[in-house]
Amino acid sequence: MSNSVAVVVEQRFYKCNDVIWTENSFKKEFWNRYLAVFDKVFVVARVKNVEEVNSHWDRVDGSKVELVELPFYQGPKEFLFTLPRLLSTLWRCKKDEHSTILRIPGILGTIYQLVVLQGRPFSVEVVGDPFEVFQKKASSSRFSYFYQQLFKYELKRLCAKAHSTSYVTSHTLQKRYPPAENSFSTNYSSIDLYKEDFNIRDIYKSNGTLNIICIGNLSEPYKGCDSMIDVLKITRSRGIDCQVTWIGGGKLLDSLKAYRNKQGLKEYFSFIGNLSNKVDVQTYLDKGDMFVLMSRQEGLPRVLIEAMARSLVCYSTNVGGVSELLDSDFLVDIDDIEGMSNKIVSFNDLTYERKSIIGKHNYNVALNYEHENITPRRQEFYLSAMTVERGKCF
Q1: What pTM was estimated for this model as a whole?
Q2: For a FRET experiment, which of 17, 179, 298, 324 has its CA 20 to 30 Å from that of 261?
Q3: Domains within the chain, CATH numbers bracketed
Protein backbone atom coordinates (compact mmCIF):
# COMPACT_ATOMS: atom_id res chain seq x y z
CA MET A 1 0.00 0.00 0.00
CA SER A 2 1.34 3.45 -0.92
CA ASN A 3 2.24 5.71 2.00
CA SER A 4 0.62 8.86 0.63
CA VAL A 5 -0.74 11.87 2.49
CA ALA A 6 -3.48 14.39 1.78
CA VAL A 7 -2.57 17.84 3.11
CA VAL A 8 -5.41 20.36 3.31
CA VAL A 9 -4.30 24.01 3.08
CA GLU A 10 -6.04 27.39 2.88
CA GLN A 11 -3.60 28.69 0.26
CA ARG A 12 -4.96 29.76 -3.13
CA PHE A 13 -3.13 28.41 -6.18
CA TYR A 14 -3.25 29.14 -9.91
CA LYS A 15 -3.36 26.81 -12.92
CA CYS A 16 -2.03 27.57 -16.37
CA ASN A 17 -1.49 24.95 -19.10
CA ASP A 18 -2.02 22.13 -16.57
CA VAL A 19 0.73 23.44 -14.29
CA ILE A 20 -0.01 24.69 -10.76
CA TRP A 21 1.59 27.91 -9.51
CA THR A 22 1.81 29.90 -6.28
CA GLU A 23 2.44 33.61 -5.83
CA ASN A 24 4.14 33.25 -2.44
CA SER A 25 3.99 30.14 -0.22
CA PHE A 26 4.03 26.37 -0.77
CA LYS A 27 6.18 26.09 -3.86
CA LYS A 28 7.37 22.64 -4.97
CA GLU A 29 10.39 22.59 -2.66
CA PHE A 30 8.13 23.05 0.37
CA TRP A 31 6.55 19.63 -0.13
CA ASN A 32 9.90 17.82 -0.02
CA ARG A 33 9.64 17.75 3.78
CA TYR A 34 6.58 15.50 3.48
CA LEU A 35 8.19 13.37 0.80
CA ALA A 36 11.00 12.51 3.20
CA VAL A 37 8.44 10.22 4.87
CA PHE A 38 5.51 9.83 2.47
CA ASP A 39 5.66 8.45 -1.07
CA LYS A 40 3.30 11.06 -2.51
CA VAL A 41 1.57 14.26 -1.43
CA PHE A 42 -1.97 15.23 -2.44
CA VAL A 43 -2.41 18.96 -1.81
CA VAL A 44 -6.08 19.77 -1.23
CA ALA A 45 -6.63 23.45 -2.02
CA ARG A 46 -8.43 26.07 -4.07
CA VAL A 47 -7.18 26.44 -7.65
CA LYS A 48 -7.97 29.21 -10.13
CA ASN A 49 -7.46 28.85 -13.88
CA VAL A 50 -5.48 31.71 -15.43
CA GLU A 51 -4.26 32.46 -18.95
CA GLU A 52 -0.74 33.57 -18.08
CA VAL A 53 1.80 33.14 -15.30
CA ASN A 54 3.23 36.04 -13.34
CA SER A 55 7.02 36.19 -13.55
CA HIS A 56 7.50 35.92 -9.77
CA TRP A 57 5.26 32.87 -9.29
CA ASP A 58 6.75 29.46 -8.43
CA ARG A 59 5.66 26.01 -9.52
CA VAL A 60 3.88 23.81 -6.96
CA ASP A 61 3.17 20.41 -8.51
CA GLY A 62 5.57 17.66 -9.57
CA SER A 63 5.84 13.93 -10.12
CA LYS A 64 5.14 13.23 -6.44
CA VAL A 65 3.06 16.30 -5.64
CA GLU A 66 -0.47 16.39 -7.02
CA LEU A 67 -3.18 19.00 -6.53
CA VAL A 68 -6.71 18.05 -5.57
CA GLU A 69 -8.37 21.07 -7.15
CA LEU A 70 -11.18 22.67 -5.19
CA PRO A 71 -13.39 25.43 -6.66
CA PHE A 72 -11.76 28.82 -6.31
CA TYR A 73 -13.26 31.47 -4.07
CA GLN A 74 -12.02 34.51 -2.19
CA GLY A 75 -13.96 36.04 0.66
CA PRO A 76 -17.20 35.00 2.41
CA LYS A 77 -19.56 35.96 -0.41
CA GLU A 78 -17.73 33.87 -2.99
CA PHE A 79 -17.42 31.06 -0.43
CA LEU A 80 -21.21 30.88 0.01
CA PHE A 81 -21.75 31.02 -3.74
CA THR A 82 -19.16 28.27 -4.31
CA LEU A 83 -20.15 26.07 -1.35
CA PRO A 84 -22.45 23.67 -3.29
CA ARG A 85 -19.67 22.96 -5.84
CA LEU A 86 -17.11 22.70 -3.06
CA LEU A 87 -19.17 20.11 -1.19
CA SER A 88 -19.87 18.23 -4.42
CA THR A 89 -16.14 18.08 -5.20
CA LEU A 90 -15.37 16.75 -1.74
CA TRP A 91 -18.11 14.13 -1.99
CA ARG A 92 -16.64 12.77 -5.22
CA CYS A 93 -13.92 10.80 -3.49
CA LYS A 94 -11.99 7.93 -4.93
CA LYS A 95 -11.22 4.80 -2.93
CA ASP A 96 -7.54 5.59 -2.55
CA GLU A 97 -6.38 5.64 1.04
CA HIS A 98 -4.19 8.40 2.42
CA SER A 99 -3.05 9.72 5.74
CA THR A 100 -4.56 13.15 6.37
CA ILE A 101 -2.95 16.31 7.71
CA LEU A 102 -4.98 19.49 8.12
CA ARG A 103 -2.97 22.72 8.18
CA ILE A 104 -5.16 24.88 10.36
CA PRO A 105 -6.82 27.25 11.23
CA GLY A 106 -9.12 27.51 8.22
CA ILE A 107 -12.58 26.65 6.99
CA LEU A 108 -11.34 24.00 4.54
CA GLY A 109 -9.85 21.92 7.36
CA THR A 110 -13.20 21.91 9.14
CA ILE A 111 -15.20 21.04 6.02
CA TYR A 112 -12.76 18.31 5.01
CA GLN A 113 -12.89 16.72 8.45
CA LEU A 114 -16.69 16.77 8.55
CA VAL A 115 -17.48 15.87 4.93
CA VAL A 116 -14.62 13.63 3.80
CA LEU A 117 -13.25 11.97 6.91
CA GLN A 118 -16.55 11.63 8.76
CA GLY A 119 -15.04 10.48 12.02
CA ARG A 120 -11.90 8.84 10.64
CA PRO A 121 -8.56 9.80 12.25
CA PHE A 122 -6.51 12.78 11.14
CA SER A 123 -3.55 14.91 12.22
CA VAL A 124 -3.18 18.68 12.38
CA GLU A 125 -0.43 21.25 11.92
CA VAL A 126 -1.39 24.40 13.83
CA VAL A 127 0.21 27.37 12.09
CA GLY A 128 -1.71 30.38 13.39
CA ASP A 129 -4.23 31.79 15.84
CA PRO A 130 -7.68 32.83 14.56
CA PHE A 131 -8.28 34.80 17.75
CA GLU A 132 -5.61 37.25 16.57
CA VAL A 133 -6.40 36.96 12.85
CA PHE A 134 -9.93 38.31 13.40
CA GLN A 135 -9.17 41.05 15.89
CA LYS A 136 -10.83 44.31 14.86
CA LYS A 137 -7.87 46.00 13.14
CA ALA A 138 -6.36 42.75 11.86
CA SER A 139 -9.37 41.91 9.67
CA SER A 140 -11.29 44.03 7.18
CA SER A 141 -14.53 42.08 7.69
CA ARG A 142 -17.47 43.53 9.61
CA PHE A 143 -18.15 40.00 10.85
CA SER A 144 -14.74 39.72 12.51
CA TYR A 145 -16.08 38.90 15.96
CA PHE A 146 -18.28 36.10 14.60
CA TYR A 147 -15.40 34.62 12.60
CA GLN A 148 -13.09 34.98 15.59
CA GLN A 149 -15.35 32.94 17.84
CA LEU A 150 -16.22 30.37 15.15
CA PHE A 151 -12.63 29.61 14.12
CA LYS A 152 -11.38 29.70 17.69
CA TYR A 153 -13.99 27.06 18.57
CA GLU A 154 -13.16 24.98 15.50
CA LEU A 155 -9.42 25.07 16.14
CA LYS A 156 -9.95 23.90 19.71
CA ARG A 157 -12.27 21.14 18.50
CA LEU A 158 -9.90 19.87 15.81
CA CYS A 159 -6.89 19.89 18.14
CA ALA A 160 -8.87 17.96 20.75
CA LYS A 161 -9.91 15.34 18.17
CA ALA A 162 -6.63 14.96 16.27
CA HIS A 163 -4.55 11.81 16.59
CA SER A 164 -1.35 13.86 16.24
CA THR A 165 -0.76 17.58 16.59
CA SER A 166 2.13 19.87 15.75
CA TYR A 167 2.40 23.55 16.59
CA VAL A 168 4.68 26.26 15.24
CA THR A 169 5.17 27.51 18.81
CA SER A 170 6.76 25.66 21.71
CA HIS A 171 4.01 26.58 24.19
CA THR A 172 1.98 29.68 23.20
CA LEU A 173 -0.61 28.12 20.87
CA GLN A 174 -0.68 24.92 22.91
CA LYS A 175 -2.10 26.81 25.90
CA ARG A 176 -5.01 28.23 23.93
CA TYR A 177 -5.62 25.16 21.73
CA PRO A 178 -4.48 22.09 23.71
CA PRO A 179 -3.98 18.68 22.08
CA ALA A 180 -6.03 15.64 23.05
CA GLU A 181 -4.92 13.84 26.18
CA ASN A 182 -2.50 11.00 25.40
CA SER A 183 -2.19 12.08 21.74
CA PHE A 184 1.15 12.62 20.04
CA SER A 185 2.11 16.30 20.09
CA THR A 186 5.24 18.19 19.06
CA ASN A 187 6.35 21.58 17.78
CA TYR A 188 8.37 22.88 14.85
CA SER A 189 8.35 25.91 12.62
CA SER A 190 7.34 25.82 8.96
CA ILE A 191 10.61 27.53 8.15
CA ASP A 192 13.46 25.88 6.25
CA LEU A 193 16.80 27.42 7.16
CA TYR A 194 20.11 25.92 6.09
CA LYS A 195 23.66 26.82 7.05
CA GLU A 196 23.99 29.20 4.10
CA ASP A 197 20.96 31.15 5.34
CA PHE A 198 22.85 32.29 8.46
CA ASN A 199 25.19 35.24 8.61
CA ILE A 200 26.98 37.04 11.42
CA ARG A 201 27.43 40.59 10.23
CA ASP A 202 30.56 42.50 11.16
CA ILE A 203 29.25 45.97 10.37
CA TYR A 204 26.66 47.90 12.40
CA LYS A 205 26.80 51.48 11.22
CA SER A 206 26.57 54.23 13.81
CA ASN A 207 25.50 57.15 11.60
CA GLY A 208 23.67 57.97 8.38
CA THR A 209 20.14 57.06 7.35
CA LEU A 210 18.62 54.25 9.42
CA ASN A 211 17.33 51.56 7.02
CA ILE A 212 14.40 49.63 8.53
CA ILE A 213 13.35 46.37 6.85
CA CYS A 214 9.80 45.00 7.05
CA ILE A 215 8.37 41.89 5.36
CA GLY A 216 4.72 40.98 5.07
CA ASN A 217 1.94 39.99 2.69
CA LEU A 218 -0.43 42.86 1.96
CA SER A 219 -3.56 40.86 1.16
CA GLU A 220 -5.08 41.56 4.60
CA PRO A 221 -4.52 44.33 7.20
CA TYR A 222 -3.06 42.05 9.86
CA LYS A 223 0.58 42.63 8.84
CA GLY A 224 0.25 46.17 10.20
CA CYS A 225 1.72 48.07 7.27
CA ASP A 226 -0.57 51.03 7.98
CA SER A 227 0.77 51.16 11.53
CA MET A 228 4.35 51.01 10.24
CA ILE A 229 3.66 54.04 8.05
CA ASP A 230 2.48 55.87 11.17
CA VAL A 231 5.57 54.71 13.07
CA LEU A 232 7.83 56.11 10.37
CA LYS A 233 6.02 59.46 10.33
CA ILE A 234 6.29 59.89 14.10
CA THR A 235 9.91 58.76 14.22
CA ARG A 236 11.00 61.13 11.47
CA SER A 237 9.16 63.98 13.22
CA ARG A 238 11.37 63.29 16.23
CA GLY A 239 14.46 64.04 14.19
CA ILE A 240 15.54 60.48 13.35
CA ASP A 241 16.79 60.10 9.77
CA CYS A 242 15.17 56.79 8.84
CA GLN A 243 13.47 55.00 5.98
CA VAL A 244 11.45 51.80 5.57
CA THR A 245 11.76 49.12 2.91
CA TRP A 246 8.68 46.85 2.80
CA ILE A 247 8.94 43.50 1.03
CA GLY A 248 5.64 41.89 0.04
CA GLY A 249 2.60 42.61 -2.09
CA GLY A 250 -1.13 42.03 -2.17
CA LYS A 251 -4.50 43.60 -2.86
CA LEU A 252 -4.00 46.36 -0.27
CA LEU A 253 -0.81 47.65 -1.89
CA ASP A 254 -2.40 50.50 -3.84
CA SER A 255 -4.38 51.79 -0.86
CA LEU A 256 -1.31 51.60 1.36
CA LYS A 257 0.75 53.51 -1.20
CA ALA A 258 -1.96 56.18 -1.22
CA TYR A 259 -1.89 56.35 2.60
CA ARG A 260 1.91 56.58 2.56
CA ASN A 261 1.76 59.43 0.05
CA LYS A 262 -0.90 61.22 2.10
CA GLN A 263 1.47 61.13 5.08
CA GLY A 264 4.21 62.72 2.94
CA LEU A 265 6.45 59.64 3.10
CA LYS A 266 6.76 58.63 -0.55
CA GLU A 267 10.53 59.22 -0.54
CA TYR A 268 11.05 57.37 2.74
CA PHE A 269 8.79 54.30 2.56
CA SER A 270 9.55 51.93 -0.34
CA PHE A 271 7.38 49.01 -1.44
CA ILE A 272 9.44 46.28 -3.13
CA GLY A 273 6.65 43.78 -3.86
CA ASN A 274 6.91 40.00 -3.58
CA LEU A 275 10.33 38.36 -3.77
CA SER A 276 10.25 34.60 -4.36
CA ASN A 277 14.03 34.18 -4.29
CA LYS A 278 15.35 33.74 -0.75
CA VAL A 279 18.72 35.20 -1.70
CA ASP A 280 17.07 38.44 -2.84
CA VAL A 281 15.32 38.76 0.51
CA GLN A 282 18.58 38.12 2.35
CA THR A 283 20.29 40.83 0.31
CA TYR A 284 17.76 43.38 1.57
CA LEU A 285 18.10 42.09 5.13
CA ASP A 286 21.88 42.39 4.98
CA LYS A 287 21.61 45.99 3.76
CA GLY A 288 19.18 46.84 6.56
CA ASP A 289 20.09 48.22 9.96
CA MET A 290 17.16 46.76 11.86
CA PHE A 291 14.05 44.64 11.30
CA VAL A 292 10.56 45.58 12.49
CA LEU A 293 7.45 43.38 12.58
CA MET A 294 4.22 45.33 13.20
CA SER A 295 1.86 42.36 12.76
CA ARG A 296 -1.50 42.14 14.48
CA GLN A 297 -1.39 38.35 14.38
CA GLU A 298 1.17 35.60 13.82
CA GLY A 299 1.81 31.98 14.62
CA LEU A 300 5.58 31.95 14.79
CA PRO A 301 6.72 34.48 12.17
CA ARG A 302 9.21 32.97 9.76
CA VAL A 303 10.29 36.38 8.50
CA LEU A 304 11.39 37.32 12.00
CA ILE A 305 13.47 34.15 12.33
CA GLU A 306 14.99 34.81 8.90
CA ALA A 307 15.98 38.32 9.98
CA MET A 308 17.44 37.01 13.24
CA ALA A 309 19.45 34.45 11.26
CA ARG A 310 21.13 37.39 9.50
CA SER A 311 22.02 38.78 12.98
CA LEU A 312 19.78 41.83 12.64
CA VAL A 313 18.50 43.68 15.68
CA CYS A 314 14.75 43.02 15.64
CA TYR A 315 11.65 44.57 17.20
CA SER A 316 8.09 43.26 17.02
CA THR A 317 4.57 43.49 18.31
CA ASN A 318 3.86 40.90 20.99
CA VAL A 319 1.72 38.51 18.94
CA GLY A 320 1.55 34.72 18.60
CA GLY A 321 4.78 33.06 19.63
CA VAL A 322 7.01 36.11 19.13
CA SER A 323 7.79 36.19 22.87
CA GLU A 324 9.49 32.81 22.35
CA LEU A 325 11.96 34.56 20.04
CA LEU A 326 12.50 38.05 21.46
CA ASP A 327 12.89 39.37 25.00
CA SER A 328 10.30 41.84 26.32
CA ASP A 329 12.68 44.78 25.75
CA PHE A 330 12.18 44.27 22.02
CA LEU A 331 8.37 43.95 22.07
CA VAL A 332 5.47 46.39 21.97
CA ASP A 333 1.72 45.92 22.13
CA ILE A 334 -0.34 45.60 18.94
CA ASP A 335 -0.70 48.97 17.17
CA ASP A 336 1.49 50.72 19.75
CA ILE A 337 2.77 53.34 17.31
CA GLU A 338 4.45 55.48 19.96
CA GLY A 339 6.02 52.45 21.60
CA MET A 340 7.61 51.19 18.37
CA SER A 341 8.85 54.68 17.56
CA ASN A 342 10.49 54.76 20.98
CA LYS A 343 12.23 51.45 20.20
CA ILE A 344 13.62 52.84 16.96
CA VAL A 345 14.86 55.96 18.73
CA SER A 346 16.51 53.84 21.43
CA PHE A 347 18.13 51.63 18.76
CA ASN A 348 19.65 54.70 17.22
CA ASP A 349 21.35 55.41 20.57
CA LEU A 350 22.85 51.93 20.94
CA THR A 351 26.61 51.56 20.74
CA TYR A 352 28.22 49.41 18.07
CA GLU A 353 29.15 46.86 20.73
CA ARG A 354 25.58 46.62 22.02
CA LYS A 355 24.13 46.18 18.52
CA SER A 356 26.68 43.43 17.88
CA ILE A 357 25.77 41.61 21.11
CA ILE A 358 22.04 41.76 20.32
CA GLY A 359 22.61 40.66 16.73
CA LYS A 360 24.70 37.65 17.77
CA HIS A 361 22.10 36.70 20.38
CA ASN A 362 19.39 36.74 17.69
CA TYR A 363 21.64 34.65 15.45
CA ASN A 364 22.00 32.03 18.19
CA VAL A 365 18.24 31.93 18.81
CA ALA A 366 17.63 31.42 15.08
CA LEU A 367 20.03 28.45 15.09
CA ASN A 368 17.37 26.52 17.01
CA TYR A 369 15.29 26.62 13.81
CA GLU A 370 18.03 25.41 11.49
CA HIS A 371 16.94 22.55 9.25
CA GLU A 372 18.94 19.89 11.06
CA ASN A 373 17.44 20.88 14.41
CA ILE A 374 13.75 20.83 13.51
CA THR A 375 13.68 18.04 10.89
CA PRO A 376 13.72 15.16 13.44
CA ARG A 377 10.61 16.55 15.21
CA ARG A 378 8.89 17.22 11.91
CA GLN A 379 9.52 13.69 10.63
CA GLU A 380 8.45 12.17 13.93
CA PHE A 381 5.11 13.92 13.49
CA TYR A 382 4.76 12.66 9.91
CA LEU A 383 5.48 9.11 11.06
CA SER A 384 2.84 9.45 13.74
CA ALA A 385 0.36 10.75 11.16
CA MET A 386 1.20 7.78 8.92
CA THR A 387 0.44 5.20 11.60
CA VAL A 388 -3.23 6.16 12.03
CA GLU A 389 -5.99 4.37 10.18
CA ARG A 390 -6.11 5.71 6.65
CA GLY A 391 -8.90 8.03 5.62
CA LYS A 392 -10.43 7.28 2.24
CA CYS A 393 -10.30 10.34 0.08
CA PHE A 394 -8.92 11.42 -3.26
Answers
A1: 0.85
A2: 298
A3: 4-193+371-392 (3.40.50.2000), 195-369 (3.40.50.2000)
